[in-house]
Amino acid sequence: QVQVVESGGGLVQPGGSLRLSCVASGFDFRAYGMTWYRQTPGKEREWVASVDTSGLRRDYVDSVKGRFSISRDNSKKTVYLQMNGLKPEDAAVYYCNTRPASDSWGQGTQVTVSS
C-alpha cells in the first residue's frame, strides 16, 4: 500500500523559498513517477509537478515554471519540491502521490505565503 509523508511546509514571505520533502514507503518507489499536488479550501486538488522514474523528465504547471523544481532520490525513496519566488497564490496544502495517483494520500504539508 502506498504510504507517503510530506514535510517542509511553513510560513514564508512573498519571494521566499521552501523545500518540500515526501518520503514514500509500501511500494517499489523506483518503478513509479511521482507527482506533487496542491489544494486550497473549496477548490479541487491541482497538479503542480511530476518527475519520471529516472528523475530526468520533469513537468510543471505553467504557473510554477521557472520557480519550482521537482527532483527525486531513489536511494532515499524521497521526492522533493524546491519552491523559489513564492507568491501568495502558491499558498496551499501540498501533497505528493505516485503517477498515476494512488487512492492513498498523505496528510500534506501546509505552505503559507504572507508578509
Features of this protein?
six-stranded mixed β-sheet, mainly beta, 115 residues, 10 strands
Q: Report the count of strand segments.
A: 10
Helix content: under 10%
The residue ranges in which pLDDT falls below 50 over 5 or more consecutive positions are none
Overall pLDDT level: 96
Query: What portion of the residues fall into strands of 2 or more residues?
Result: over 45%
Topology:
Blueprint: E1 3-7, E2 10-12, E3 18-25, E4 33-39, E5 46-51, E6 58-60, E7 68-73, E8 78-83, E9 92-99, E10 109-113
Parallel strand pairs: 2-10
Antiparallel strand pairs: 1-3, 3-8, 4-5, 4-9, 5-6, 7-8, 9-10
What does this structure look like?
There is one protein chain. With 115 residues, the chain is mainly β. Helices cover 0% and strands 50% of the residues. The chain is built from no helices and ten strands. It has strands spanning 3-7, 10-12, 18-25, 33-39, 46-51, 58-60, 68-73, 78-83, 92-99, 109-113. The strands form two sheets. It has a six-stranded mixed beta sheet with strand order 2-10-9-4-5-6, with no helix packed on it. Strands 1-3-8-7 form a four-stranded antiparallel beta sheet, with no helix packed on it. The model has no long low-confidence stretch (mean pLDDT 96).
Structure at a glance:
It contains no helices and 10 strands. With 115 residues, it is mainly β.
